[in-house]
Design a protein that fits this description.
heterodimer, A: alpha+beta, six-stranded mixed sheet, five-stranded antiparallel sheet, 19 strands, about 30% helix, B: about 280 residues, about 75% helix, flat
Chain lengths: ~350, ~280
Amino acid sequence: MTSLTLRNLKKSFGATQVIKGVDLKIADGEFVVFVGPSGCGKSTLLRMIAGLEDITEGELYIGERKVNDVQAAQRGVAMVFQSYALYPHLTVRDNMAFGLKVRKVPTGERERRVLEAAASLKLEALLDRYPRELSGGQRQRVAIGRAIVGNPQVFLFDEPLSNLDAELRVHMRSEIAALHQRLENTMIYVTHDQIEAMTLADRIVVLREGLIEQVGTPRELYESPANLFVAQFIGSPRMNVLPATAVAGRLAARGLNVRLAEGVGMRPEHISLTAPEAGLLRGRVALSEYTGAATLLHVELEEAGTALVIANGPVVPEVGQEVGLGIAREHLHVFDKAGRAIRPMEQAA
Amino acid sequence: MTLTVRQTRLISRICWTLALLIVAVPFVFPFLWMVSSGFKSATEIFGQPSLIPRVWRWQNYVDVFEYQPFARQYFNSLYIAVTVTVLTLAISSLAGYALARIRFAGAGLLMIFLLSALMVPEEVTIIPNFFLIRWMGLTDTHAPLILLPVFGSHGVMATFLMRQYFLAIPRELEEAGKMDGLSRFGIWWRIALPMSRPALAAVSIVTFLFSWNLFLEPLVFISSLEKFTLPLALSNFTDSYGLPLWHLQLAATSLAVVPILIVYLIAQRQIIESFALSGVKG
C-alpha cells in the first residue's frame, strides 16, 4: 500500500496544455476516482501516473519516491486498460504471467501467483483459453488478474467498464469494489460515468479542462458542490439551475435572500409536486418520461425556463397539467456570478 | 414437378462447378502441356499435338542434369530465395515498425521518399546498380541477387506492408507491454511480431516468389554457369545455334515449379490473402 502526491503536475502536447497544474494527495489504500467530461485530462493524468506519458512540469511521488523519470514498469503500478489490452496471441495463463516472465520471476513462483489470482477471480477454468474465446466480462477479469499478479502498490483503472453492457457493468463494478476491500491497495479509477464514481470512490476528483474543480467524498460532492460545474456534473438527472432574478422574489417571500446570487440550483429528486398555488414555483408539465422506478417530468416554469422533476408517487400529473414545485430550504444551492457556490453563511452576509 | 431445396442446391452446385471448370481450362492447360511436353522427345513436341505423350521419355529428366549443373543451379535459387526472404522479413519488420510507431523528425518525408522507390521500374535502375555492384567487386557473385531485392523496391514494398500492419495493432497493447517491463525492442519482438503473423506470411510468400522468379538481375550480374539461378538456367537449354531445346526446357521448368507448387498446396488460403494484402498479382 502506498500514498501518492501530485505537485503542480502539468502536461503539454506541443503548444496545447492539457493538464494545467494539479495538486493532489492520495492516501494509502484510498480508492480515488477521476471524473470529468471528455477531454478534461483525466486519462492523461492517469497515464502520467502510470508512466505512459512524460510529465512536462511538476512532481509526482509514489510513496516517498519521486517517480517523474522512473520507467512505467519500475513505478510499482499496474494498469487495467479500457480495451483490456490482452495479448491476443497468448493464453489467459500466459497473459497473466507475461509481466512476471519479463521480470524474470522463477517459473514456480510465477505459476503460484497466476493460480492464486485466477482463483480469486474465478478464472481457473479459463487459463488455457485465448482472449478471443472469452466474453467481455471474462476478459475484464483477466485484465484485472494480470494487474494483480504483479503485486503492485497502486492499481490504475482507465475506464475499465465502458466496453461492457449495462448489466455486466453493474456486476463488475461490485467485483472491483470487493477487490479493493480484499486487497486494500491504493486504487485510482478513471471514468466519465458518475454512478461508477459515486458507488466506488472513497474520494472523487472532478476535473475540467486540465484543472481540479473539486475533491471530496461522493456525499460532499453531491450535497455541497463547490461550483456550478460540479453541481451539474454530479447527480443524474443533472441539477436544475434557474436564474436568481427569476426566483429571488418568491424565495425572499419565504425568508431566503439570494440577491447576491446569479443562479439557484435544485436537484430534480429534491423537488416536490404541490398544488399550483402552493408551490415555490409554478409551471406546466411539458413532457413526462416514465422509467419504471420513477417518472421524470419536464416542467415549463412561468418565468424561468424548464425544470426537471422526479415524481415518485403513484399519481403523476398529466402532460399539460399545471403544477406547483416545492423544495426544502436546505436543498437549495446558490451560486455567484463566477459559478462558485455561496454557502448559507455567505448568503446571510 | 417442383424441386426440393436440396435438389435446387445440388443443381446449382453442379452448374457452378462446371462453369468454374470451363474457366479454369485456359489457366490449367498450359501447365499440363508443359508437364506433358517435358516427357516428349524434341520431334514429338512439334509433331501431331497430343496431351498424352506417345512415348514417355524419362531420359529428359536425366539429360536436364547432364546438360548443365542443374542441381547446383536449383540449390542456388533455393538458398538465395530463402536468404532473401529471411533478410527481407527481418529488415522490413524492423523498418516498418519504426515507421509505424517511432516518432522522429522527417518520418513522413522518409516514407514518401521510400515509396517513390516503388515507382521506378527495376529496368531503369539496373545500369547504375550494375556499376555500383561492379565497383563493390560483387559481379558474378550471388550478393547482388540478395542485396537488390532486400534493399531495393521489393524491400520497400515489404516495409510498407509491414508498416501498414503495425499501424493497425492497438497502441494499448504496446503500452501494456511497457507496463510489463518490455523495452521498445521487446515490444517489437514479443508483441508486435507475434501479432503480425499474417503480414509476415504474406511478405514471406511474395518475397520467395519474387526471388525465385528473378531473371533480369541474374542475367546482368552472373556469368558463371555454376552460379546461375533457375530462371537463367532454364533459358540456357539451347542447342549450338542458340535455339531452345524445348523438351529439356519444359522438363526443367516442371522441376522448377515443384517448390512453388508445394508452397501453394500447403498455404493456398494464406497465399490468396497475401496477394490481396500486398496488392501484388501472382
